[in-house]
Amino acid sequence: QVQLVESGGGLVQPGGSLTLSCVVSGGTFSLYGMGWWRQAPGMRREGVAGITQGGETNYLDSVKGRFTISRDNAKNTVYLQMNSLKPGDTGVYYCSKNPRLADDPWGQGTQVTVSS
Asked: Are strands 91-97 and 34-39 parallel, antiparallel or unpaired?
């Protein structure tokens, strides 16, 4: 059973930066595409960034040029570097396999709050 643990969230001022990490255990990480999603209060969860087994990346339009997804297969970890953060980036950030199947697990999430 794959397990995912996100970390790195926090409170940051607009324009600031954070790096999120997601450590994956219980599976063969290098075989998975991975992604980051976020959910703002009262909103549906949305995909933010994805990375394939081979390292190809894709991004939600609103974060292009500001966020960078990367992976370290030796550490079973996927990262999300977030720069020039805006209040609209506030939410709980989750990682998961990408593309997801219905039964694929989510991590517990990490809260990102962008506020002055």
From this structure: antiparallel
CA-CA-CA-CA dihedral for 22, 35, 62, 66, to nearest 10? 50
Per the CB < 8 A criterion, the answer to whether 90 and 113 are in contact is: yes
Indicate if the pLDDT at residue 102 is higher than 90.
Answer: no
Q: Give 3-18 pLDDT, tens digit per residue.
A: 999 999 999 999 999 9
CA nearest neighbour of 9 among 108, 115, 109 = 109
* CA-atom Rg of the chain in angstroms: 13
Question: Which residues pair with residue 112 across a beta bridge?
Answer: 10, 91
What is d(CA 41, CA 64) in angstroms, rounded to the nearest whole number? 22
Is 48 within 8 Å of 37 (Cβ atoms)? yes
Residue type, 100: R
Give the tens place of pLDDT for each residue, 16-39. Answer: 999 999 999 998 999 999 999 999
Checking if the pLDDT of 83 tops 90, the result is: yes
